[in-house]
């Protein structure tokens, strides 16, 4: 046998390649079975980037279904609460082009507010709230637990007396932050005059 | 001589300190209005504990700390709380925040103070509590609540206590003047801190070498104590906490760590004086030294100013000239911020008001392109790469920024100062830090929302499943009832199991399952079972009879009980016998299919067939008998319900009344039938109540047809009268109970009365 292989190097090469192929193939096959991942890891990663408002503005019933749809190849620009930041993060993760948001505008972070004296206690908003942020009982006034509200506005539609408002979150001293300066050096030297009012008038 | 270490980078901006040092500390006096913002410190805003219109005394707590990292607020002079509202506060945003506004009365009346004679006798916790209650927050500029900073964990050994008298920022001289004039108070405060912290190695006061007078005063006051005044070369920003620690000890605070991690606690000298006054005299923090300076001030100097004093009041004392001032800065030129309004108050962190002229502090020229000169990196005291971070900040690459240790940036502004292209680098870092923090908060919030959403989904699913299970259980129970209706024990068990109780529900479910199998028993088995039941019932009855007789003979006390038992046995025996007979009949007439429903149908059919053989009279008699039975039963139930005051009493009453009506009708029919004995249309009668009713109506019509028109009219009149009467009584009842049917009833009555009048007229005309 050894003699045959030494005499015919071509056969020896073929045989060794075949043996190697078999060995690694079986190794890969074993690994595929042994280390099989449960669920869809990409959908999980996408879901971690979504804002979890559960608002359904993307057309899917919640963030998880949209994450699964993105993992299947749906567009990444359907999330108004996430806005540009989420689109960029998703584009980074999936290595695709960042698209402009597929909505009129980014939704402002807001919180639902029930005008309590108008509430008739129908419980429709309670059933609509995806995060159980509305408390109340039938024929009793309801109210929104502001700290739990995601601002998805799903409760606004079902209200028969239109007593729910979406109030944009106010800027307070606690959540205020510095603005990123506008890079001025992108202007050419002659336009960079700080005394710009004259130029505006001339224009 | 102590070894002095150096920090990386740093800049040397013009100091401009002499202007405000020409005079000593002057009191700013009592302004007509004091504005106390609830948030003058880092952490949660304090909660107001006074009401509008309330008179408050100097030093009275007007807002209490809320949460661990928070500090209370005290009234800095006596007066009346005029309002608690949102006002502009000294903050770079120029936003409004809640403030307590006090109209001062000029009496400056102190609240009763609680001084400590000997603080060394106090527990550490007690001392910290006093510092916290005095509302002391870091007076160097950051405003971190001092009590929180001083409450080090027991397992952390602090070897060095550092007092920060560096005051490295240009223009500001508040700490310098404090050292010159109140060195003894500083040293007294340091001693309290020494007692509190118990530094194992050393206590240092770090001062830059540009304050020789202050250093001399401090050294004189510290004579004979173990407090060492350390002097080092002037450089901006050596007054940063971490920088000072590095200069004095050579140790670097780890990234993201605290000074306590390397055994150091650091306090500003202004804070030290405040602690001294709070402990020794019981005075809360109600005033501070503030520098008023800048070329737009004709009389720059240092003022001891009550917290809450409006900035414009203080500026007037400094000879402020509005028309010359290009922008009003709170804090120093490096780290301060521009005030938009001069109505804002002086707060715990206000160390300086800077009113520069255009020439003195010109607005920053427009930024130019970064030329990558690297001067920012050379100036950075924390050895960061400002230029690199600038690009990342512009590209919003936050991950990269964090990798480049953005959060170690102390925002000192040295990089912006050094930049030849005038790029506002610090602004980029501040904005990026805020954005990263916001994203982190949003991440936490979204995780929370997700958890709640998932919890809701699970809850909804569980509720659905429970509903489905209940529905199934009901279905099974109904099936079982139909199938095992003849099994009294099972029925009783099923009845006893209320569906609400989960354990009982489970039993019920199991029973239902079993009963689901039960119909599979064959006819023979069933027959045998029934026969056995009859036998046992008979046996029991016999024994009961025997016992009863015995008891009667002996006149035993349990005679009553035995009698009822005997009766029950008799009943049971009769029932069992009946069941057996029925079953035998059914199995002979229609072979059972095993299906309970089919069984029931078969039984019903058999019963009908049997009924069909009977004459209408017999049937009527039977009906009357059964109705009488039902009526007596329901009367009994009604009595019971009434006794127990049950809600069902009303319903039962109604049903009893109905039954009585039915019984009357049936009796009448029976009477008719027995009278005529005529097998007229009734021969075709079935048990169908609808058909019966139709028949009755037909009979009535026939009878009516035989009547003369006069009689007819009379009868109609009578019936109408009866109806009117009935409606009236009903209406009266409804009115009494205030039911909402009153209106409807009134309408009906009116209509009926109209009809009656018409009928009467007709009858009158015809008659």
Rg calculated over all Cα atoms of chain A: 30 Å
Oligomer: heterodimer
Q: Enumerate the strands of the largest sheet of chain B in spatial order, edge to edge or round the barrel.
A: 1-14-13-17-15-16
Please write the CATH class name of the domain at 18-354 in chain B. Answer: Alpha Beta
Largest sheet of chain A: 2 strands, antiparallel
Cofactor (chain B): [4Fe-4S] cluster
GO molecular function (chain B): 4 iron, 4 sulfur cluster binding; electron transfer activity; metal ion binding
InterPro entries (chain B): 4Fe4S_Fe-S-bd, 4Fe4S_Fe_S_CS, Ion_transpt_RnfC/RsxC, Nuo51_FMN-bd, Nuo51_FMN-bd_sf, RnfC_N, Soluble_ligand-bd
Biased composition (Low complexity) (chain B): 490-507, 597-609
Account of the 3D structure:
- With 203 residues, chain A is mostly helical.
- Among the domains of chain A are: 8-35; 41-94, 3-methyladenine DNA Glycosylase II, Chain A, domain 3 (Orthogonal Bundle), CATH 1.10.15; 110-168, Alpha-Beta Plaits (2-Layer Sandwich), CATH 3.30.70.20.
- Chain A is built from seven helices and four strands; from the N terminus they run αααααβαβββα.
- In chain A, the strands form two sheets. In chain A, strands 1-4 form a two-stranded antiparallel ribbon.
- In chain A, α3 (41-49) packs across α4.
- Chain A is elongated and about 100 Å long.
- Mean pLDDT of chain A is 85; it is low at 195-203.
- Among the domains of chain B are: 18-354, NADH-ubiquinone oxidoreductase 51kDa subunit (Rossmann fold, 3-Layer(aba) Sandwich); 613-701; 707-767.
- Chain B is 51% helix and 11% strand.
- Chain B has helices at 124-133, 146-150, 174-181, 183-197, 212-221, 241-249, 269-280, 311-317, 375-379, 386-394, 398-403, 414-418, 425-483, 488-496, 502-517, 523-554, 559-589, 596-613, 616-644, 649-676, 689-706, 709-737, 742-766; strands at residues 25-27, 33-37, 47-48, 55-56, 61-64, 73-74, 79-88, 96-104, 160-164, 202-208, 227-232, 264-268, 287-293, 301-306, 328-330, 337-339, 352-354.
- Chain B has a six-stranded mixed β-sheet, with helices on both faces. In chain B, strands 2-8-7-4 form a four-stranded antiparallel β-sheet, with no helix packed on it.
- The longest helix of chain B has 59 residues, at 425-483.
- The A-B interface holds A 47, 50-54, 62-63, 85, 88, 130-133, 148, 150, 171-181, 183-185, 192, 194 and B 39, 45, 89, 91-93, 95, 97, 363, 365-370, 393-394, 396, 421, 423-424, 427-428, 430-432, 434-435, 437-439, 442, 445-450, 452-453, 455-456.
